[in-house]
Amino acid sequence: MEQRTVTGRAMRAMPLAGLLTGCGGVQSALDPAGFEAEQVARLFWAMLIASGVIWVLVLGLASYAARRRGQPWSQQGASRLIVWAGAVVPTLLLAVLLFYGLRLMPELRAPGGPLRVHVEGEQFWWRVRYHPPGGAPVESANALVLPVGQRVEFSLSTRDVIHSFWVPALGGKMDMIPGRTNRLVLEPTRTGEFRGACAELCGASHALMAFTVRVVEPAEFEAWLAREAAPAAAVEPAAQAGEAAFLANGCGACHSVRGTAARGDIGPDLTHLASRPTIGAGILENSAENRAAFIARVDQIKPSARMPAYGTLPETEIAAIAAWLGTLR
Amino acid sequence: MPDSEDAARRKAQEARLEKTWETPSGWRYWSAVNNTEVGLWYTATSFLFFLFAGALALLVRAQLAVPDNDLISASLYNQAFTLHGTAMMFLFAVPIFEAVAILLLPTMLAARDLPFPRLSAYGYWCFLIGGVFVMGSIFFNAAPDAGWFMYPPLTTDPKLTGIGADIWLLGLSFIEVASIAAAVELIVGVLKCRPPGMRINTMPLYCWYVLIVGGMILFAFPPLIAGDILFELERLAGWPFFDASRGGDPVLWQHLFWIFGHPEVYIVFLPSIALLAMIVPTFARRPIIGYSWIVLAAVGTGFLSFGLWVHHMFTTGLPAISLGFFSAASEAVAIPTGVQIFVFVATMLAGKMTRSTPMLFAAGALAIFVFGGLTGVMVAIAPFDWQAHDSYFVVAHLHYVLIGGMVLPLFAGAYYYYPLIMARKLSDRIGRLVFWLMFLGFNIAFFPMHFTGLRGMPRRVFTYPGGIGWDWLNLISSAGAVLFAAGVLLFTWDAIWGIRRRADSPRNPWGAGTLEWLNPIPGPDYGVRSVPAIASRYPLWDDPELPRRVDEGREYLPDAEEGKRETLVTSVLDARPIQCLRVPGNSFMPMIAAVLTGAVFILTTFHLYWTGLAFGVAAILSILAWLWRGTAMVPEKHEKDIGRGVRLPLYASGIRSVGWWAMFITMTGDMTAFASLVFSYFYFWTIHPVFPPLDAAGLPMGPGLLWPGVALLAALGAWGAMLWARARNTAGQAGGLRLGLLAAVLLALASGGAMLMGPWANGLEPTTHAYPAAVWVLLGWAALHLAVGVIMTLYALARSLAGKLTREHDIDIHNVVLYWHFAAITAVVTLATVALFPLLA
Amino acid sequence: MLIHNRRHANLWTLLAPPAIWAIHFLLCYVAAAIACAKGGGPWVDLTTLRWVILGITIPALGLILVAGQQARRHWGFGTDDPPHDQATDEDRQHFLGYATLLLCALSFVSVIFVAMPAITIADCR
After folding, report:
1. B324 vs C106: CB contact, 8 Å cut-off?
2. Which CATH number covers residue B702?
3. Residue A116 CB: number of other CB atoms within 10 A?
4. Interchain contact C98–B (C-beta under 8 A)
5. Each residue's pLDDT tens digit, A46-82
6. Contact A78 B349 (CB under 8 A)
7. Interface with chain A: mutation pick from B468, B475, B684, B769, highest number of A CBs within 10 Å
8. Looking at the 3D structure of chain B, how many domains does it have?
9. ipTM of this complex
10. CATH for A1-70+109-329, among 1.10.443.10, 2.60.40.420, 2.130.10.10, 3.30.750.24?
11. pLDDT digits (tens, 9 = 90+) for B291-311
């Protein structure tokens, strides 16, 4: 099937350092690249080691009890075991752990810096709006770019069903719930490319609702945001047919490409589509071939997506649109 | 009794007992209501659902074995994991607890049956019908597909869902009713049907667990039923309880679901641990050490488990301080759980362990459960849960807890109790193989998932891309699942076919000390030959002569002179005999009532409301007919000799009757459902700045004060009339009784009508906003309770006219008045909430 | 009163200490939920709520201590250690007292656990 090959290729195309070793991966909470993820990963390893020790002790005692020959323990000795090992020691350990966790919570939810990003979950993609301090909002979709070393305040919402916004490498997840706006603060601590995904079942294509996150130096971020805020670059003559076909087939009713007549608000903003590493909300490598496949067979690639498949269009037209989209940097 | 020496007389007694308790043959077999038959059907059915749900899990694992797999579609995958979770929780874990308890409890209590055998049968048939209905839907590609916790709006939006959501809601509501019925049966069984002398401090630990779990069911299931009602009203009638655009909130469902959902985990865990509490002392060859500690653990867990529900909602954006309370309670609940484990270890240390297959499974359960408990302590820390939540880490955690804490102890119990139930032991040789297949398969399947999850794999994805670190982990998990399944299949083979080639087990094959092993194997239909007086926790160890005395009919109730099924009722704390209870015998009525009740739910699913209503009326009539002929039966004499010179009454009413206890317990559950609806009302108050909302004219909406006031007075009048009627009956005035009942009926009808007039006359349209919908649902609930009260009152009137309700035989009026206490509280609280609270707010 | 001056222990006295925990838990949860939902926004100051939680925690702990006193009396002030497994009035009473005492300890610890968030968390974030 088409999907298998293209998805696989998309993922191979992503720069995945240290992929098969240790706990690495672009989507791993154990290879942290953010303040919260680092805190939690450290907490996890500490808890895991403690748990391992406790497990070995309990099971060791149990297996000693099962194999022991000779004099049974006295009633008093066995009762003491229940009091100390069963009740007192666990209570103290749990109290310490609980206190640590309770202190960590407000710290991780401390206010973010001046940059705010609004992300809205849709079936099955992400609407992204940057609110730079003092600047006008910048519209984007399905690909986040974040400055390293800054606490970024996310506001998260949805209008259709519950989604959950999760970038494991940066921090924990937060649900997007109709009627509510939730906040989440992420603070990337190193640059790199990461992947996020929807963590709450949201329909047939829940598995196909991902996004990319690129963490860059602050200066690079400013430059990128300025580019993203600008309308689409003037169309190369070779691609003009694609733009015409895009508009003629009504794509602009759902998608926006700033600088053209396409002003739709239903689907993802495509103004700078070509600058995003993936299409289809993080599921396909952003190549002309995949763009064409997505336009023609979105119903197979992404079950229950709201976009209709345009497989009835002539192949040349689809190819032209795909080519034109590839020029939108 | 000197003539019990007489062998001929004893033979005659045995023959009478046998005839009275005989299991019918042929097609009439299915009319059986005795716990031995119903318990067996219940166990077998829930095990079949377990196998089916396991097959669905294999389908899920096959799809996830490799990245970008296209073995099954997203839609089928979603149906498969939804039904897997649903069936494992609702059709296996809870029912098999009830099934095993129905099978074992009477034997542990040396009772001939539980107090309400037909209720057990009704519960079973409800379970079977509901279960087949829900699970069958997958063959029509119509199964629910939004996960076993069914979060709206994905499940309420008609554009996004098919009939699967209705099947889930109505099918499972139906089964929940059966669960509550079983809880009532088991609580009354433990409290009132113990053998003489089995005091609260000497009853088997299993009974303690059953008591606690029964109580938990009463407080955990009703919130889900309340949630189901709101959910179905939204789906079928458009009342927007969970629709944010019309004043509802999807998070309310999450609260209601998890107030059920977390105690549920302990509801399935405690009864399985209870089996270990019976097994460990047997193989340690000594009484349990820390009996009181087990009681602490069971009661403590029972309470604390109700303070954990929000830990399933740590990522919904609730304030950190709220998360903190639940995080704290989630850590606290680890304390009683730890105590439980160390009680077993301590008992092993203080005893002389013998090796056995049940202990092998118990040890495996311990190894897995302890790890699951430790990861549970981890996810209870909210910041860690923000990463782990809804990832495969949680999938791993919950399977470690449930398979270590529930499935493996249950298998230990199966190996232990097989000779008791099926008269033959399972093979130890095959058992070891089964164990290692399951144990290794389980760990191979689920241990890697901890890392799959922390490497970022969300749960409930039908596919995943290759190359981000999940490929090998998933393949290993799938391989482990196959091993685990092989173990289960091997067990199934041995349990059905393997045992056929073996000889019957000897009596008390494990040398246990508790009463369930008292009987010869295979045991007769009537259970114990006579009901012994008990003086210790392990009577078979402490009193080696006991089986002989029981067999010779020297203890209580050695006969069934009148050919009636009888069992003993004793007092709660000290088990002093207080009544010889006649329990009803075999009947098709429970099955007929269950089929009719099931039809109501199934027809509603398909929106066939009028036919559904007709079946509803038929269901009520069938239940009334069953009650008329099978409950509050007037005995032919006041009391009878139950042996050893003790005479007990055959009839008891009020707090002394088991029916009163059943009504009280059922209504406690009912009040919990009501409290959940009231909670929902106030929940809407907290989320809306202006509540009640303003209508078009800018005035606050509401049902007014006039009609609620009328309804309140009439409801209190109906209640008063019932109290008066009961007093007249006690005074021996049948006329006064009937007059009071009639007055109560008329006042209740007036009150119910006035309740519904309030929102109607004030133009509250339930589809416009969550507020009017919440008002309607509360008033509708109260009015429905008055309507049920009317039916009960008319039933009491008919009993009085038929001479079955008199001054001496007054069970019915006491139980109906008890119902009215609860109905009156419901009415008063409802009216205060909808009419007076807006004045304060 | 259920937790004080009862001559005989029964199932209700056994359930009283965890019921106190449950009421304390519920009050904390409801108070916080209302304070944050009605307060508006994540930066609502919770100083008052934290005092309120302290104000319900101390009485809850006190009641559990009272219940523990009674349980200790029912147990016979420690004169009779478990197992309490004889079928006598005395053993039944001692068993219930001892189990209640254990539940008091668990409830006491759990009430403290549940109050801990008020120490570390000062607003509705």
Report:
1. no
2. 1.20.120.80
3. 17
4. yes
5. 999 999 999 999 999 999 999 988 899 999 999 999 9
6. yes
7. B468
8. 2
9. 0.97
10. 2.60.40.420
11. 999 999 999 999 999 999 999
